[in-house]
């Protein structure tokens, strides 16, 4: 991630913002049509259904997509997983595997920690997607298969 200061001197909000911006730039480079629509729904989906149901929904959409590697739900899932597992390391258990595997292995407290942090990064992803990707998503519809 290209930032002007090291992660050690940034606030968590600065780290979230920088990470979300980098995800959107990456999605733009991948020509990820539909990413904005998925990112816009992400915070309310987490609030409404919880982190587990949201992750499961994204997994199903990715699995059903004609091209899973370009599926916007899959890209959002990848970004959410990268933040929670690799960057913030919100999981205390030593489970390996997917984000869902880690969620299922966590005690209640870890699940809630992941949900709070997932919501925080979701808001940043939504804002940067709205700011940086609107023209790409307006011209074509998302892959919803």
Could you characterize what this model shows?
This protein is mostly helical and 145 residues long. The chain has a single domain, classed as Peroxidase, domain 1 (Orthogonal Bundle), CATH 1.10.520.30. 70% of the residues lie in helices and 0% in strands. Helix 1 crosses helix 5 and helix 2 crosses helix 5. It is globular, with a radius of gyration of 15 Å.
Keywords:
single chain, 145 residues, Peroxidase, domain 1, 6 helices, globular, disordered C terminus
Give the SSE layout.
Layout: H1 12-29, H2 35-64, H3 72-87, H4 99-105, H5 108-132, H6 134-139
Helix pairs in contact: 1-5, 2-3, 2-5
CATH homologous superfamily classification: AF1862-like domain
Structural class by secondary-structure content: mainly alpha
Average per-residue pLDDT, rounded, comes to: 87
CATH architecture: Orthogonal Bundle
Q: Output the CATH class name.
A: Mainly Alpha
- CATH fold-type name: Peroxidase, domain 1
Quick recap:
The protein is mainly α and 145 residues long. 70% of the residues lie in helices and 0% in strands.
